[in-house]
TrEMBL record, chain A:
One of its GO terms (biological process) is cell division. PANTHER family: CELL DIVISION PROTEIN FTSX (PTHR47755). It comes from Jhaorihella thermophila. The keyword Signal does not apply. Keywords: Cell cycle, Cell division, Cell membrane, Membrane, Transmembrane, Transmembrane helix. The lineage of its organism: Bacteria, Pseudomonadati, Pseudomonadota, Alphaproteobacteria, Rhodobacterales. Pfam families: FtsX (PF02687). This is Cell division transport system permease protein. It is a multi-pass membrane protein. The chain crosses the membrane at residues 32-55, 175-199, 231-249, 269-291. Residues 179-296 form the ABC3 transporter permease C-terminal domain. Its main location: membrane. GO terms for cellular component: cell division site; plasma membrane. It is found in: Cell membrane.
UniProtKB/TrEMBL annotation, chain B:
It comes from Jhaorihella thermophila. GO terms for biological process: cell division. It holds the Pfam family ABC_tran. The lineage of its organism: Bacteria, Pseudomonadati, Pseudomonadota, Alphaproteobacteria, Rhodobacterales. GO terms for cellular component: plasma membrane. This is Cell division transport system ATP-binding protein. Residues 2-225 form the ABC transporter domain.
Length: 299, 225
């Protein structure tokens, strides 16, 4: 397809639109289906982008941090913590190491035990937050050194539970993109069916146009323009409703976790704007292919 | 202009035309006659490429019609005016638009040719019917509209398939008159008709040759008509 051809299609002339008889309710069906598909695409896109953000955050934040837990009798805890911090500070690849304060540890436990808990009454281990530098530290070597000097120390670099979470988020993102691809495919299939039906219904019109010297490009253009415009209009409406739905979702909050993060952030809000042009492009290609096929059959 | 060279045409195994050779020279007036079902419409359709010969060659404007692709065929059709037996209008468009259809589909500026269109409609006597829809027209009006559409691109050749099929004698005389006028302007005309009275009437006005399809072959009819 040449560029000039595409331009002729899209601009066309006002008269070409009238050549094909108006099609009544099938026009509304095309509008409705493209609106519904665009609406669904907005949510699939929101899901993909949110899952993507989650996967990125989990993998970057968690990868850069580790926790050292010191299980020691109360009287040795402070001393062991001191030794552990010293070792950590000497370890290449550790950017920083900081013992959590009593208040911070209490805040971590607050969701389970309430806020009026006194940690002194419980054998709560001391936690040290380790932030990894660039390049990172050698976890196995660190474990060996800690084991020798601080018997009660356990290094948890989060990989154990980080990996499945990131995997889950990545699967979710993949599902979102697969959904978008399926929505695109379903739209193409629907437009192809509608366009084929319209071409068949207008076989006589097409025959007359061929008899008076119309080229296939001209005839196909009348149909392509019609379906492309309908899809564009329908998809724009669908995206409008979908965006309104996403806006009505609750604000992202730490309490809500992943679910309230579902939505768009920053430039993500611009992504749904791409849906109507993409839908129109799908409709354009689907109608064009259907028209080419049908016109060859119609002599 | 149009040249058929040893053309055969069969459809579904049945032979309709055999060994048809004819030349329509520029500015000539031909009638094509023969009983119903003899293949007049088939021959006309071969001449504008709606059908392809099963053997032999059809040359239009020195171009072999069988070698053209769809776009080239469309371009050739703009240079041939065809009056179809059943007129072939777009029923949802008014008569004026139907007549202007060849201009519209070839991307010509219809507004710029409005004057020509109005004059043409007056010439075929449809000046007052511009806004009517084709189904509202009488048989004679439809045939005249079809003729107007056939000539709007100012083609060099006009093929008319039974243009006087469903009209009364007076109307068929008017249509014939229009075709004769076109021939005097230098157009090559081929009219398929089984109406011998019409052919006889025409022979008084124009030097017309009569081709007759009989027994699947085409012969030049003598002066016995």
């Amino acid at each position: 397809m040449k560029r000039g051809t595409i331009r002729t299609f899209l601009l066309g002339d006002a008269q070409a639109g009238r050549i094909v008889p108006p099609s009544g309710h099938t026009a509304h069906l095309t509008l409705f289906v493209s609106a519904a598909m665009a609406f669904l695409a907005v949510f699939a896109l929101a899901l993909s982008l949110a899952a993507g953000r989650l996967a990125d955050r989990w993998s970057s934040e968690l990868a850069r941090s580790a926790t050292l837990r010191i299980n020691a009798p109360a009287d040795q805890r402070a001393a062991q913590t001191e030794v552990a911090l010293k070792i950590l500070r000497q370890t290449p690849g550790v950017a920083s190491a900081r013992a959590l304060t009593q208040e911070e540890q209490a805040a971590l436990l607050a969701p389970w035990f309430g806020t009026d808990l006194r940690l002194d009454d419980l054998p709560v281990p001391q936690l040290i937050e380790v932030t990894e530098g660039e390049p990172g530290y050698d976890a196995a070597g660190l474990r060996l050194r800690l084991a020798a000097a601080v018997p009660g120390a356990v290094l948890d670099d989060h990989t154990r539970w980080r990996r499945p979470l990131v995997q889950a988020a990545n699967s979710l993102r993949r599902l979102g993109w697969i959904s978008i691809a399926l929505i695109g495919g379903a739209t193409a299939a629907m437009i192809t069916l509608a366009a084929s039906a319209a071409l068949s219904a207008n076989a006589r019109v097409i025959e007359v146009l061929r008899l008076v010297g119309a080229r296939d490009v001209y005839i196909a253009g009348a149909f392509v323009r019609r379906f492309t415009l309908r899809t564009l209009i329908g998809a724009t409406a669908g995206v409008g409703f979908g965006m309104a739905g996403v806006l009505l979702l609750p604000e992202s909050s730490p309490e809500g976790g992943f679910l309230t993060g579902l939505g768009f952030q920053g430039f993500g809000w611009l992504a749904p704007i791409l849906i109507p042009p993409m839908g129109a492009l799908v409709a354009f290609l689907a109608t064009w292919a259907a028209a080419r096929r049908r016109l060859k059959e119609l002599a | 202009m149009i040249e058929l060279d040893n053309v055969n045409y069969s459809y579904g195994g049945a032979e309709l035309l055999r060994g048809v050779s004819v030349q329509l020279a520029p500015g000539t007036f031909h009638f094509l006659t023969g009983p119903s079902g003899a293949g007049k419409t088939t021959l006309i359709r071969l001449c504008y490429g709606a059908l392809r010969p099963t053997a032999g060659q059809v040359r239009v404007f020195d171009t072999d019609m069988t070698r053209l692709d769809r776009d080239q065929m469309a371009m050739i059709r703009r240079r041939i005016g065809v009056v179809h037996q059943d007129c072939q209008f777009l029923d949802h468009l008014p008569v004026a638009d139907n007549i202007a259809l060849p201009l519209i589909v070839s991307g010509r500026d219809v507004a710029a040719e409005a004057g020509n269109l109005a004059e043409l409609m007056k010439w075929v006597g449809l000046g007052a019917r511009a806004d009517a829809l084709p189904p509202e027209l009488s048989g004679g009006e439809r045939q005249r509209a079809a003729l107007a559409r056939a000539v709007i691109m100012s083609p060099d050749v006009i093929l008319a398939d039974e243009p006087t099929g469903n009209v009364d004698w007076d109307m068929s005389q008017r249509l014939l008159q229009l075709l004769v006028e076109l021939n005097r302007m230098g157009k090559t005309i081929l009219v398929a008709s089984h109406d011998l009275a019409l052919i006889r009437a025409a022979k008084n006005q124009v030097q017309a040759r009569v081709l007759r399809i009989s027994n699947k072959t085409l012969q030049l009819a003598g002066a016995d008509l």
